[in-house]
Inverse folding.
C-alpha cells in the first residue's frame, strides 16, 4: 500500500517531522550573566540599570560560548588573541594562555622533563608556587641561596647540581630580574633546562631582552595580584616547538590544541597524560586588554622610581637592594636592607607615619619584626611549611618513592639552609610605588624617605648607592 505524503520519510521527500522550532530561542549565557560580570566591576546600581535597559537576550541568538575551542565562537576567540598579543609583546614563537601561574609552571616543568627521580634547583626567595609546581610534576625542589639582589646566586648553583638535576628555575623577585647570563652558562655546561618564573616581573628586561624569553620556557601569572592581570590566569612562553607541544599537552590533555585532535601521535611522546589548565575566554578577553598596557605601564613605573631614587641620600646603615639590571626591572617598589631587623621596623613605622606605605616584604610594619613575631611568609623557603614538612603527596612521592631513592636522592629542608636569603628577607623593607604618582608625589616621597633616614641613620656620601 502506498504511504500518504504525510507519513513519507523526509529522506524520501516527505515533510519534516520537526521543520522548525516554535519555542523562543534563549541564549544559554545571556543578559543576566553579562550583568553579573558588569556587577563585578563595581558600577553603581543606577549605571547597571542603564546598561540593562540597553541590552536584551533577543540580540544574542544562541549567545556566546565563552569557551576556548567551541566552534560556535566568533573567530578568533579571546584566548587566541591573548596568545598572539603575548607573542608580539615578548617576541617569541609560542605562547600558551593557561588558568594560573602555577598551572603555567607545572606545564613548563613537565615539558622540561621534570618527573619522578629528578630535581630542580629553585631560589630560596620567590614564591611557594615555584617549588610546589616542581612537586606537582613529581620532581624534588632543591633550594639555592640568593645574592644581594634577592635573586638566585649564580655562584652557588653548581654546588647544588646532582645527577638527578634536570632544570634550574630562576625566579624574578618583585620587579627585579635574575642574573640570567651566568645562570644560563651553568645550565649549558650541565645540559640543564632553564624554566624562568617571571610572575613578579612581567615586562622586565635583562640586557635589553624580556625576561621569560632567555630560558627554555618562561612562565607568568596573570592573576589579580600582579601588575597586569584579570582574575586568575597564566602564560607559558617558549621558542622551542617540542617544548611548546609538551607544555600544551599538560595544560590541555584532551589534545584539543593539536591540528587534528584525533590523529595518531605524530612522534613518540607527543601524547601523554595531562590535565586542564585551559584559560577561560572571559579571562582571556580581559587579559588581552591588560597585556597591551604592559609596556607603557612598565615605563611609567620606572620613570617614577627613577625620579624618587635619584633624589635619595646615602646612609651608613642602609644598603639598597642591588639590581642585576637597573634599567631593565619593573620599578613598582623600592627595597632596602637596614642594618638590623629592629632598625628596619623603626624606619618602616616612621615611613608609614609620613604617609609612605611600606612594610617588611609584603607585611605591613604593624605585623611585627620579621624573624621574631612576624607571620611566616611563603616567599621564603624557610617558611614554606607544607614543603619543609614534605607533607602529603601520594605514596610520599616525590620525596620517598623508590624512583628517587634508587637514584641516590634524599632531601631535607631546615631553617638556616639558605642564610643569605633568610637574613636579607628578615631585614628587607619595601616601599610600594603607584604608577599614578605625579612628579609632585614622587618628590614628596623622596623627601619623606630622606627625612626618616636622616632621623635614624648616618648620612655618608660613600655609603652604598641607590640604583
Ligand atoms: C613567583 C611566583 N610564581 C608563581 C606564582 C603563582 O601564580 P598563580 O597565583 O597565578 O598561580 C606567583 C604568585 O604570586 C609568584 O609570585
Amino acid at each position: 500500500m502506498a504511504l500518504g505524503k504525510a507519513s513519507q520519510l523526509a529522506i524520501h521527500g516527505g515533510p519534516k517531522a520537526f521543520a522548525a522550532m516554535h519555542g523562543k530561542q534563549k541564549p544559554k549565557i545571556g543578559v543576566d550573566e553579562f550583568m553579573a560580570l558588569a556587577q563585578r566591576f563595581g558600577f553603581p546600581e543606577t549605571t547597571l540599570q542603564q546598561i540593562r535597559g540597553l541590552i536584551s537576550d533577543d540580540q544574542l541568538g544562541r549567545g556566546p560560548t565563552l569557551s576556548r575551542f567551541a566552534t560556535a565562537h566568533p573567530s578568533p576567540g579571546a584566548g587566541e588573541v591573548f596568545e598572539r598579543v603575548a607573542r608580539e609583546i615578548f617576541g617569541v614563537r609560542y605562547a600558551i594562555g593557561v588558568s594560573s601561574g602555577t598551572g603555567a609552571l607545572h606545564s613548563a616543568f613537565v615539558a622540561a622533563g621534570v618527573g619522578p627521580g629528578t630535581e630542580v634547583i629553585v631560589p630560596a626567595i620567590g614564591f611557594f608556587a615555584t617549588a610546589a609546581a616542581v612537586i606537582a610534576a613529581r620532581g624534588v625542589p632543591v633550594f639555592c641561596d640568593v645574592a644581594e639582589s634577592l635573586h638566585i646566586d649564580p655562584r652557588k648553583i653548581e654546588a647544588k647540581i646532582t645527577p638527578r638535576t634536570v632544570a634550574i628555575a630562576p625566579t624574578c623577585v618583585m620587579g627585579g630580574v635574575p642574573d640570567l647570563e651566568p645562570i644560563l652558562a651553568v645550565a649549558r655546561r650541565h645540559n640543564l633546562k632553564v624554566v624562568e618564573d617571571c610572575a613578579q616581573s612581567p615586562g622586565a628586561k635583562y640586557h635589553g631582552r624580556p625576561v621569560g624569553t632567555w630560558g627554555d620556557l618562561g612562565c607568568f601569572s596573570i592573576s589579580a595580584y600582579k601588575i597586569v592581570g584579570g582574575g586568575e590566569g597564566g602564560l607559558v612562553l617558549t621558542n622551542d616547538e617540542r617544548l611548546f607541544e609538551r607544555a600544551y599537552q599538560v595544560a590541555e590533555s584532551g589534545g584539543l590544541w593539536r591540528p587534528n585532535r584525533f590523529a595518531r601521535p605524530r612522534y613518540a611522546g607527543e601524547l601523554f597524560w595531562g590535565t586542564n589548565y585551559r584559560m577561560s575566554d572571559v579571562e582571556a578577553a580581559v587579559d588581552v586588554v591588560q597585556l597591551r598596557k604592559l609596556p607603557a605601564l612598565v615605563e611609567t613605573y620606572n620613570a617614577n622610581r627613577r625620579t624618587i631614587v635619584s633624589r635619595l641620600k646615602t646612609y651608613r646603615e642602609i644598603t639598597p637592594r642591588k639590581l642585576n639590571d637597573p634599567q631593565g626591572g619593573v620599578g613598582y617598589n623600592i627595597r632596602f636592607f637596614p642594618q638590623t631587623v629592629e632598625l628596619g621596623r623603626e624606619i618602616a613605622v616612621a615611613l608609614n607615619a609620613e604617609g609612605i606605605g611600606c612594610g617588611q616584604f609584603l607585611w605591613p610594619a604593624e605585623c611585627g619584626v620579621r624573624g621574631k613575631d612576624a607571620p611566616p611568609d611563603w616567599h621564603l623557603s624557610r617558611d614554606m611549611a607544607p614543603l619543609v614538612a614534605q607533607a602529603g603527596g601520594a605514596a610520599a612521592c616525590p620525596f620517598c618513592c623508590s624512583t628517587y631513592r634508587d637514584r641516590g636522592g634524599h632531601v631535607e629542608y631546615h631553617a638556616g639552609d639558605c642564610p643569605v636569603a633568610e637574613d636579607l628577607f628578615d631585614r628587607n623593607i619595601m616601599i610600594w610605588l603607584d604608577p599614578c604618582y605625579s612628579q609632585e608625589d614622587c618628590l614628596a616621597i623622596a623627601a619623606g624617605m630622606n627625612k626618616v633616614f636622616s632621623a635614624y641613620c648616618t648620612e655618608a656620601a660613600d655609603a652604598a648607592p641607590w640604583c
Summary: The pocket of pyridoxal-5'-phosphate is lined by residues 100-102, 126-127, 129-130, 171, 197, 199-200, 221, 223, 225, 234 (CB under 6 Å).
